[in-house]
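Crash report, auto-generated. Payload:
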Amino acid sequence: MRRMFSSSMKNATLLGLDKHPPIDRSFFYASSCENAYQCRLESDARRRVQRGPTTPVTTIPVILCVDVEPDPRSVNRDTPEPLVGYELTQSYLRNLRPRIEAVTGSPVHYSWFLRIDAQMEPYGNATWIMDRYGAHLEEIQHAGDEIGVHPHAYRWLEDERSWLHDFGNQSWVDHCLTMSVEGFAKAFGRPCLSLRFGDRWMNTATLNLAERMGVRFDLTTEPGTLPYPTPMPGERASGPLPDYRRMPRIPYTPSPSNFLVAARRTQRSIRIVPLTSSYLRLGFHPRQYFWRVRENGFRGRRQNTPLYMWESWPAPNSFDRMIDRALGAQRRPYLALAIRTRKDISLAIGQRIDALLAHPLASRLRFCTPAEALAELERRQ
Ligand SMILES: [Zn+2]
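Recovered output after restart:
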């Protein structure tokens, strides 16, 4: 940590940031007038997406991850709740598909991640979602969507009649991942390629196991997030969440000894695709800018706030501007956004979807699978 800090400080010194704290210039543009803000759009996101008149028009891959899971976080083990949220999310995304296609002019491929773990066993068996919702899974596969797994590390404590996030118990975590990936392979008759571990939790041993089991794309990580002791207040966990402040913000091949560091050699088959983070406008608070650089590193300073679709994002950090900033921070822009199935899906994410489809670059968005997104990004190298 000290080494990273001193390295970051060294970079800051080289760039003169120790004398002049990093200033978010969008603050000045945005606070002067709307036209100036449009200039920023062109000078940042658009410049990076389309480099000069001789460059072919580039597209922006969008991976929309959908975690398919029970409505409550703590499933009632005696009488598990029906997946009403999933059923409503099915129809919401079914109706949304042609709308996105009309804006982007391209087919839409979502990425669905199914719960197959101990918390699904009260429904009858861990692969209950696949047994119960076969028709929908057929429909989305026919549409070209990706299907992966979304295991949580919940373990039932019989004595206490409650669920524990057993992150500190590697053999239990391995059991959950194995149940998930093998359950997927058995139900679909093909290997599982995509993974989103529950509650953004991951560690190196689990990622390495996922690779050995054939997983090729991990979409768990959320750059900029802190190592909280539990996923949600009031819940119990046997280990903290990972510290994602200093991780890469672009798809990368992870090191076998530390999944949060990009490997120098790229012979590994698994890729980590970080979800998209952006940054908040902080106003005239140089100390806060300094802290942001110190915590996230100079490279990560403009992608430290996850773009959660269910948050309201009031001005000056409205969702469309957060997208601008995220795109402007990337050399090869992409978006990876995640939602969960829920009863109020339209209310929860509708305004963010509207903002995305009204964005000046919306016609360049391509809603695609992780494999398609990486193929497109690697083609631009
Ligand atoms: Zn989940």
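Post-recovery validation: Residues 67, 69, 150, 152, 198, 340 surround zinc ion (CB under 6 Å).
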